[in-house]
Give the backbone structure.
Amino acid sequence: MQKCQKCQNPATLHITEVLGESQFEELHLCEQCANKYLYEPQQKANLGKGGGDLGKEGEEGLLGQAECPECGVKFVEFRNTGRLGCPHDYQAFREELMPLLENIHGETKHCGKTPRRFPQTREHQSELTQLRNRLKQAVTKEDYEEAAKVRDLIKHLEEA
Amino acid sequence: MNLDSLTQNNGEWLRGNGPEADIVISSRIRLARNLSSYPFSNRGSAHQKAEIETSLRDRLTRLDFMPRLEYLMLPGLSSIDRQLLVERQLISRELANTEGPRGVAVCPQETVSIMINEEDHLRLQVMRSGFALDEAWQDIDRLDDQIEQRVNYAFSEEFGYLTACPTNVGTGMRSSVMLHLPALVLTKQIEKVFRALQKINLAVRGLYGEGSRASGDFYQISNQVTLGKSETTILTEIREVIPQIISYERQARSTLTRESRQALHDRVRRAYGTLKNAMMMTSEETMDLLSSVRLGVNLGLIEDVSIPTVNELFIHTQPAHLQKLMGAALDGEERNAARARYLSSRLRENGPHLN
């Protein structure tokens, strides 16, 4: 059985869009996706663009929407301002930044001075990232006692 | 630090000595550094920026770095004082003109300046008179090490020192040499030099950096690449190209004195005469004329004024310096009149006898 174009479920509805004179577009969707498609006009416009375009548009859109979990800056914002949001962006947007760095510098790997305290700092860094994740989880679970504890640990490490 | 006292001396970069000082004005290196646990300046909240400023200020003023650093908070300074620091190349235009908690630590000799909350949390700068990149690097490397003992820098093994703009990532280093190239401009060979420099990834900028016009025939040559090359390699690439440019400029100077000595002499004396006698003088015209006079002094066509004096006039005739010297805020017209009076009195001190 044919699969839905938007998810993995079997396609039960087959829609033919009339785009213009002798221009048609066929869509094969499951009931759920069809409902969405039929009742959400903005989605319709998106889907209506057809195979190749959809892929490309979707990808570009996704790229721009990529967001740094640390500072919340989106890649598209960096594109507009030319400034990153925080040091973590280099990891969060690693894939997107690589071609750019190659373009600017002709290289993508640092070669040169390293902070003397770096090995120690690096340990702290990964520990800090772990702690920050724990803090986030604690806040989501509204476990404020745990959150306060983790926050103190972070503060302690940062000041070390 | 009493900013008024800055106008009493020349600062490091216009001191007019140091190796090859007739052509190389100054050597400068800057390092971009950020704290690992804060967003970059453009993304930081007012509260975070205040926190960064307070903690960095505290750490910088306690460094056992000699010479001792003095700290200036930018929001507390008048716009003339901020402009004065820009004209002396101690802070960037960006730091002068943005809002929020920010400042600069400088040493009295003006060889070291550290900006806080510019585009990056920290911008270290060391400046030396003449062609002295290695000495500048030794100083800034030591300063960087000392700060790093007290601060967690944003650094990754892969990308090096992490900066707000990916054009600075890696070493975070911009090293530049400021040259006075009037003969290459006069003989119309300067474009050729630029094209050759661009081919080897070196940037050419005007006196006040990015986007500024090359007034007074001053040019800054600096590295563009910061990632994938070590500091030593970057410095070597610049160090190797500068002597070539110096020798082109010297060749152009000797061509001029050989083939058009009279025209050159005429140009130099007209410039000198205009600077001494004009009633109104814009800062652009001043730069152009002083450039000719500087060339004339270096070629022995004018003997009654010294290079340090000419260098001093370049900076004293800038808008903020002029207003400081006159002790009053002046609008454009008033400034042009005051500038002409100042130039005339300074150059007449030296007596009327020309070579």
User: Anything to note?
Assistant: Chain B has two domains: 3-252, 261-354. The CA atoms of residues 233 and 239 of chain B lie 10 Å apart. The first helix of chain B runs from residue 46 to 61.
